Amino acid sequence: MTSLQTELNGKSTATLEKPPIIVAKNVEKTYGNGFHVLKGVSLTVNKGEVVVLMGPSGSGKSTFIRTFNGLEPYQKGSIEIDGTPISNGKKGIELVRREVGMVFQQFNLFPHLTVLKNITIGPIKLRGLSKADAEQAAMELLEKVGIAHQAKKYPGQLSGGQQQRVAIARALAMKPKVMLFDEPTSALDPEMVREVLDVMRSLAESGMTMVCVTHEVGFAREVADRIIFLTEGNLIADTTPDQFFNNPKEERLKTFLSQILH
Amino acid sequence: MDEFTLSRTFINLIIATKWTIILSLIAFVGGGLVGALIALMRISSNKLLSRISWLYIEFFQGTPLLLQLFLAFFGFSVVTGINLSPLVAAAIALTAYTSAFLGDIWRGSIQAVPRGQWQAASAIGFGYFDQLRLIILPQAVRLAIAPTVGFLVQVIKGTSLASIIGFTELSRAASLINNVTLQSLLIFGLAGLIYFALCYPLSTWSQQLEKKLAYK
Prior knowledge:
The complex is a heterodimer of chains A (262) and B (216). By secondary structure, chain A is of the alpha/beta class. Chain A has ten helices and ten strands. In chain A, the strands form two sheets. In chain A, strands 6-7-8-3-9-10 form a six-stranded mixed sheet, with helices on both faces. In chain A, strands 2-1-4-5 form a four-stranded antiparallel sheet, covered by helices on one side. The longest helix of chain A has 16 residues, at 190-205. Chain B has one domain (6-214): MetI-like fold, CATH 1.10.3720.10. Chain B has eight helices and no strands. Chain B has helices at residues 6-43, 47-62, 65-80, 86-112, 115-124, 128-158, 170-181, 184-213. In chain B, 39% of the residues are buried. The A-B interface holds A 69-71, 94-95, 97-98, 100-102, 104, 106, 108-112, 121-122, 125-126, 154, 156-157, 167, 170-171, 174 and B 114, 116-117, 119-127, 130, 134-135, 138-139, 142, 215-216.
């Protein structure tokens, strides 16, 4: 499977033969204040796919992505990660979360731990790796994201872009089956967006299954296999980047594109 | 009464200081243990536990320590028929008082750690107690340490109230010696200096810790 995937470069031709990693069906969520944020959204993400979620603010895209690892409870519908259901309040959600890496808008690195320990704490405590093995793996990941020389520093001593790259390495250290990105570049200064997108791009090229909420049009165009458009809690488009940007059909999507493509 | 020379007075005060220190230590340790439990209950998602700990905090913060000492000393014997020694009654009251304040300080420190830290820890796959132990508490401790040490100063001073239920610590010893020698200014001045000598190092330590523990 892996070799096939690499051969076909994780792109659309192989999609049909790939097993689904995320299966979300008719997911509905209402916040405590009565706001109906998700109105029955369904999405299937297959192994090796890069799916980008776009939509205006308040459309529910961040909430939706957070239901995939149980950070946001939902009331109706179902979500399965690699065959394991994510249900509300059930025990064992931790085991599913180990398989789902998440990168946050605000990085959320642990400020009391060094960069290296931020990355090794999960594998040591949850995957049972020895300290030496975990550190070796962490250094390889830091090498990949280009900040191995900062391993002994604390997060507060790094720039935003560097912190976000550490956060990506931290999530990857758990060897997840899928990576979720929740607006990973939205809190960054403009000059740091690119270094983070480059890391995400090479991650996509390595065959990682990714779901990204992002406003980065260039990234979506070049890297995504599919683009999902959410608005007011409804999924109204699920299409290729080419169709999405060059031949949008839905009125709401046309309006959105006219607002973000200057 | 010539045996109460200055040095005798001083020695007697120092001996009584031992009890002030012992009572303070009991309050720190007992209050710390109970306070930790109170803080954990307060942040629990279990409504009942959280409510009980809220009531506990509000009761002991909202009533005078003196009244709590009376309740422990007189109230306990009325209800159970057992007379507590002044030391035990003072230890119970000070533990309750200290635990309510420490519990509240620590609750605040835990809640001051950004929600994103809990989310990041759970996204990695840590369960609730691992999140708390590995990620949240180490950060909360940094926030809590200065106000905690600062509050310990209040506890040391608070032990003086135990003199009213007949526990002979520094304040009561000073008062007893004064009854004999009538050298009020000297004796209470000395007692004040001893309290200051106990509390001042804690205050400065608290300030140093605050600077040292700030993230670089």
